[in-house]
Amino acid sequence: MPERTRLTILHAFDRLVERVGFSKITVSMLVKEAGVSRATFYRYFKDKYDVMNYNYKQMVDTAFTPERVNTLEDLFLIFYQMGRTYWQPLVRMFDSTGINSLSHFIADYSYDASKKIVEENWGRELNETEKLKLRVFCGGCSYMYEDWIRGKYDMSPEEAAHALYLTVPEEFQGYLWGKQSEE
Hints:
Structural class: mainly alpha
Radius of gyration: 18 Å
Shape: globular
Helix content: 55-70%
Number of strands: 0
Largest sheet: none
Strand content: under 5%
């Protein structure tokens, strides 16, 4: 039941983003659209930004698996294909700004997920230089994805995924789930 309630709120959020845009959504609107009480809403989410971020996190977690992705280029292609499918809601969600913005969340969540996978594969923690490179790369990916969603790059999902992969720092290229050799 709890997961069903969370999904009910997520679906309400998706419908509202389509109809009114992210900036106009309020918790009151979410509660009404989902047919849940405020208390129920706050049991699952802190605010509308939390709903937006959880929604994106679900997309990432669904895509970022060994069964679907061998390399970062595979992962990028999935995101660009999803971006093509969910273009309008994403454009509206990218209207969020500041520390709670979707771009900021994507950069942070991508960094955390990537760092975990790389450290597991390498069997060690990243050093400070590697963390910095990964942080800069994830931040850049987030803003590049937003720009592509907003139409600033006239590229197919395949072209965008390949172009982005060409910018991956060398030590992070290759297969995501296999053992990498240490320096």
